[in-house]
Design goal:
The model has no long low-confidence stretch (mean pLDDT 97). The protein is an alpha/beta fold. It starts with a strand and ends in a 12-residue tail after the last helix. The protein contains 11 helices and 11 strands. 38% of the residues lie in helices and 15% in strands. The radius of gyration is 19 Å and the shape is globular.
């Protein structure tokens, strides 16, 4: 198989390339990114292209499957620029897949595409994907889902897969994700067990984490199989503030959502940190994912648990870990 990965050099993209490079069914890989990496990957060549403006069709011709991952988190103060890549760029990629005659498309959706939860009972892939309207990220993911609905209706012979992973991270993405979400003022010396002063204990806050390498394996399985449809991708256990504090050797500090949101808003508007306050709303409303379908139909099973992944990325931030690609370099 020849597989093209659009958005190949970030947190998930590098793990997808690693997973594909280990699969004997995959004979060649083309990684597409705006900026070419110094790192090399097995069976992989790279091409520079931007989904917002470049002609993707010549790059996709001859592919057996396209994996579309391209997505922007920053600049968070310019939603127009984000939408240009996330929604319009995705639409351009989908149109290029059709024009190039590619038979299969695997797309990065997200837990963020789902409508807010009713409670903490896990939901399967039938939960509505109308997004959380308080969050630009969620609105964009939900709109891409609607574009995929239309694509499937218009192109019934095209095999379309949507992966909806939980929060995804790994050690090598630590420096890149720090830039995206925390900024330069995070005191990394405190990011060690026993040194973190507290974890905010906000009612209703809990996190599902999954290791990027496990997500990369899910993309590999979706690409090389005949799978269709949506798949939740998540690891256990669900981490509430008490579990996070215990893992980090810290304590919890009771805090209302409005206080946490207000702190995020003030520091974001002051450009002290880059995470807009609507991420708080998304975290509080995101449903708990049930990955049963991925386990049964893809044969997917995460190697690492959520707590292990948390500790790995915290250590990675402290140690300025990264990889030789533009999004991940320290």
């Amino acid at each position: 198989m020849r597989i093209v990965v659009i958005g190949a050099t970030g947190n998930v993209g590098t793990s997808v390339l690693d997973a594909l490079g280990r699969d004997d069914a995959v004979t060649s890989i083309l990684g597409i990114a705006r900026r070419l990496p110094a790192a090399s990957f097995a069976r992989t060549e790279f091409a520079a292209a931007d989904v917002t403006r470049d002609d993707l069709v010549p790059l996709l011709r001859g592919a057996d499957c396209v994996i579309h991952l391209a997505w922007l988190i920053q600049p968070s103060h310019d939603e127009t620029a984000l939408r240009r890549t996330n929604v319009d760029g995705s639409q351009r990629a989908f149109e290029a897949v059709v024009s190039a005659g590619v038979p299969a498309l695997v797309v990065a959706s997200s837990v963020g595409a789902y409508s807010p939860r009713a409670d903490v009972r896990p939901v399967d892939e039938s939960w509505p994907t109308l997004g959380n309207q308080a969050s630009w990220y969620s609105r964009h993911k939900a709109e891409v889902e609607r574009r995929l609905d239309l694509l499937e209706a218009e192109q019934p012979d095209l095999r379309v897969v949507r992966l909806r992973p939980a929060i995804t991270t790994k050690r090598e993405s630590a420096s890149g994700q720090r830039r995206l979400f925390a900024g330069p003022f995070l005191p990394t010396t405190l990011l060690r067990p026993g040194w973190i002063p507290f974890v905010p204990d906000v009612p209703g806050l809990s996190l599902q984490l999954v290791h990027a390498d496990d997500v990369g394996d899910a993309y590999r399985r979706a690409a090389v199989s005949g799978a269709r449809g949506a798949f939740n991708i998540a690891a256990e256990p669900l981490l509430d503030p008490t579990a996070i504090a215990s893992a980090l050797g810290s304590r919890t500090l009771r805090m209302s959502a409005s206080v946490l949101r207000g702190a995020a808003r003030a520091t974001w508007h002051a450009r002290i940190q880059p995470t807009s306050p609507d991420w708080i709303d998304l975290a509080l409303g995101a449903p708990v994912l049930d990955p049963t379908r991925a386990r049964s139909e893809l044969g997917w099973d995460p190697v690492r648990g959520a707590e292990e992944t948390l500790l790995e990325v915290v250590a990675g931030i402290r140690e300025r870990a990264g990889r030789a690609t533009p999004p991940l370099e320290p």
